[in-house]
């Protein structure tokens, strides 16, 4: 515990914890689920109040011409620079992850006419798989499934074996939602291109957690959410990346007036807007967009490289403590052992994980369960401390052993 406290004292990102809303006494020992929903920034609260009293409350509809219309692109550019390795004009904030993924996949397929196959990972996040299956059913295409290692993710060898001359699109997660495996974006993108296919990356567990290099790796398209490590709020809008080289010919299937070249001309015929704005369909959700803007600003200020460095240190602490404290009680680390190959969480696996996760939450350690046997320990560098993480692992040790900690029964708010 003393080592953990010293790490907190030396942590350059520690001051950011005060930039988030945290109840004075919410009964928590540790919040380790920021990889599902991040904490709310205080700046977002202030901006939303300003929205109600100034922009919406005072300027009313005039606010559309005073900055709201440009928010999807302005915030997208800021996100691209801060966390995605994307130069301006390629990222927009729009819709949900599911809707954005549907648009990007349909648009990518249209760029590869005559090809009949989509390649993806069977262990991808369910919504990704469902959307792939739905599009394949809709268009009469074949899905070629990769059966990746559940404790890792898709390798270059596995992707190479799945690609054919008929592959139109590959879609994969950059960080696996269960194991936290970081895919080799450059290598897998190059493989897809060697076969004449496009690749669509899911960045939900990457954005705001690890550096992403969309431009440098040659990625074609990408999608991701903003309510995890970017702390934009529940249901905050997602983002879409369309590489500049594809924008002139890219056509997404949901033609809405916000993605039209001249929306206020109210013309009869649809003409796609220039650049990535053509991904838009309906009216941007301004309240959610503000959450994205403030979350991205915090990420930019902290620096994605510093965020990554602390994230690796936190996950390594969890892995080391799990080896010492949990493995003797039948727990298995179901994430990559190499911290450089591991994203922002560590998955701990045991047959009774569903029940154990509920006991942890009741004891004040908020984690999440992922079937069939995984407990995800999510480490959010801007809001999670080392001592907090140590205490959470100590409680986990006591519960995994089926008893109490050395200082007495496990209870909400217990510290050691």
TrEMBL record:
GO terms for molecular function: kynureninase activity. Its cofactor is pyridoxal 5'-phosphate. This is Kynureninase. It is an enzyme of class 3 (hydrolase). Belongs to the DegT/DnrJ/EryC1 family. Belongs to the kynureninase family. InterPro entries: DegT/StrS_aminotransferase, Kynureninase, PyrdxlP-dep_Trfase, PyrdxlP-dep_Trfase_major, PyrdxlP-dep_Trfase_small. Signal peptide: none annotated. It catalyses: 3-hydroxy-L-kynurenine + H2O = 3-hydroxyanthranilate + L-alanine + H(+); L-kynurenine + H2O = anthranilate + L-alanine + H(+). It comes from the Bacteria. Pathway: Amino-acid degradation; L-kynurenine degradation; L-alanine and anthranilate from L-kynurenine: step 1/1; Cofactor biosynthesis; NAD(+) biosynthesis; quinolinate from L-kynurenine: step 2/3. Keywords: Hydrolase, Pyridine nucleotide biosynthesis, Pyridoxal phosphate. The keyword Coiled coil does not apply. Its EC number is 3.7.1.3. Catalyzes the cleavage of L-kynurenine (L-Kyn) and L-3-hydroxykynurenine (L-3OHKyn) into anthranilic acid (AA) and 3-hydroxyanthranilic acid (3-OHAA), respectively. Homodimer. SUPFAM superfamilies: PLP-dependent transferases.
